[in-house]
Each structure stands twice: as C-alpha cells, then as structure tokens.
C-alpha cells in the first residue's frame, strides 16, 4: 500500500514535474518568442503613405476652403435689388452637382486640416476640423436630395464651423478677443 502510494506519488511527481519544468521552459523561451512574433505581427503598421502636404493652412483656406464655401453659399441665396427679390437656387442637375462638389471639397478639407503639418493640436483642432467635415457632409446630402432650404440652413451651420475654429486659432481674431 505504502509502496504503491509512494510509487504513485513519485510517478505523479515525475509525471507532473518534468512537464511543468518543460512548461516553464515553454513559458520562459517559447512563449515570449511567440508573443514577440505576435507583437511585431500586430504592431507592424503598414508603411505610412508618402503624404506630401503642399499647402499650409493659410493656402488651403485661400485655394480650397474659402472659394468652395463661397460657391456653396452663393448657390442658395436671396438677392434684393431695385427690380425686386431674386431667389437664387441651383436649377439644373449641373448646378446641383456643382454645389455638391463644393461641399465635397469642404468636407475633405477637414481631413486635410487634421494632417501634419496643418494640425495645431490633437484636441480642439481635431474637433473643429471634424465639425467642418460633418456640416459639409450634411450639405452633400442636401445637394444630392436637391433640397435648397436644407442647403441654405446647412450653409449657416458651415459658417458656424468656420467661425468656431477661427475664434480659437485665427491670430487676428484671437488677438482682437484678448
Ligand atoms: C480647423 C480650423 C479651421 C476651420 C474649420 C476653418 N478655418 Fe479658415 N483658417 C484657419 C486658420 C488657422 C487660419 C489662419 C491661417 C494662417 O494665417 O496661417 C485660417 C484662415 C482663413 C482665411 C484667411 C486666409 C488669409 O488670406 O489669411 C480665410 C478666408 C478662411 N480661413 C476661411 C475659412 C472658411 C470659409 C472656413 C469654413 C468653410 C474655414 N476657414 C474653416 C483655421 C480654420
């Protein structure tokens, strides 16, 4: 009985210990190796796209953002002159597409603003850029739906998005508010 027990015990010992030592070796060598492979596998991000920002924020505003916004705002407006009141609305498919395209330029400009070297910080700047994207995206939908009233309303919200960022980051405004 005793012997058998001891045998059983020692078998158990021999039976468990060596594998557990092998287990430790596995833990000590193989697992870290695996985890290193896994780690590098998960973290090897694809190579960065070869971005080449050409316009700084000011030039992007002058060349893309401001002209696009002007065209978009001009596409839905009311002119009052001596001859009376003129409701300007996109009339043809081409005019609606043009309005849509200006909204697309504004929306994607928001992404360009988020990129280095234009981004000024990772917080408020991103929020303001995102606001431009979100409002311009609404304008794209309004133009796609040929909904002039909605496009007019969204035009106001886009203006807000411009101002919200300028209030915080446009030197002349920031200094004037000091
Ligand atoms: C995320 C921030 C941000 C948003 C959104 C933004 N701007 Fe700007 N804008 C700037 C900054 C910063 C400058 C100043 C750039 C400089 O002088 O270096 C600027 C400058 C300008 C200028 C002056 C350019 C010049 O000649 O000095 C105009 C015009 C302008 N923005 C129009 C707009 C319009 C229109 C919108 C909305 C459709 C808009 N911006 C949205 C950040 C923003």
Shape, per Cα inertia axes = globular
Structural Rg: 32 Å
pLDDT under 50 segments (min length 5)? Answer: 1-24
Q: What does the oligomeric state look like here?
A: single chain
Helix/strand-derived category reads mainly alpha
Number of domains: 2
Q: What is the residue-averaged pLDDT?
A: 85
Q: What is the CATH topology of the largest domain?
A: Four Helix Bundle (Hemerythrin (Met), subunit A)
In what range is the share of β-strand residues? Answer: 5-15%
Estimate percent helicity: over 70%
Q: In CATH terms, what is the architecture of the largest domain?
A: Up-down Bundle
The counted number of beta strands is: 2
CATH class of the largest domain: Mainly Alpha
Small-molecule binders: heme C
Structure notes:
With 178 residues, this protein is mainly alpha-helical. It folds into 2 domains: 1-45; 57-176, Four Helix Bundle (Hemerythrin (Met), subunit A) (Up-down Bundle), CATH 1.20.120. The chain has 6 helices and 2 strands. Strands 1-2 form a two-stranded antiparallel ribbon. Strand 1 (77-81) and strand 2 (84-88) form a beta hairpin. It is globular and about 60 Å long. The relative contact order is 0.08. The model is unreliable at 1-24 (pLDDT under 50). Bound molecules: heme C (HEC). Heme C (HEC) binds at residues 57-58, 61-62, 65-66, 69, 106, 113, 125, 128-129, 132, 158, 161-162, 165-166, 169-170.
In short:
This protein has 178 residues and is mainly α.
List descriptors.
single chain, mainly alpha, Four Helix Bundle (Hemerythrin (Met), subunit A), 2 domains, two-stranded antiparallel ribbon, 6% strand, disordered N terminus, binds heme C
């Amino acid at each position: 009985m005793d012997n058998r027990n001891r045998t059983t015990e020692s078998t158990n010992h021999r039976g468990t210990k060596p594998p557990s030592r092998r287990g430790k070796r596995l833990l000590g060598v193989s697992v870290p190796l695996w985890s290193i492979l896994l780690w590098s596998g998960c973290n090897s991000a694809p190579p960065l796209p070869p971005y080449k920002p050409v316009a700084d924020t000011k030039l992007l505003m002058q060349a893309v953002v401001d002209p696009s916004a002007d065209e978009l705002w001009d596409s839905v407006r009311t002119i009052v002159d001596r001859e009376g009141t003129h409701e300007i609305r996109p009339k043809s498919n081409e005019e609606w597409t043009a309005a849509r395209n200006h909204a697309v330029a504004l929306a994607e400009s928001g992404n360009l603003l988020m990129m280095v070297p234009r981004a000024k910080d990772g917080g408020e700047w991103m929020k303001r850029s995102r606001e431009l994207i979100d409002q311009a995206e609404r304008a794209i939908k309004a133009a796609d739906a040929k909904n002039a009233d909605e496009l007019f309303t969204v035009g106001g919200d886009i203006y807000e998005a411009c101002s919200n960022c300028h209030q915080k980051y446009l030197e002349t405004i920031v200094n004037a508010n000091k």
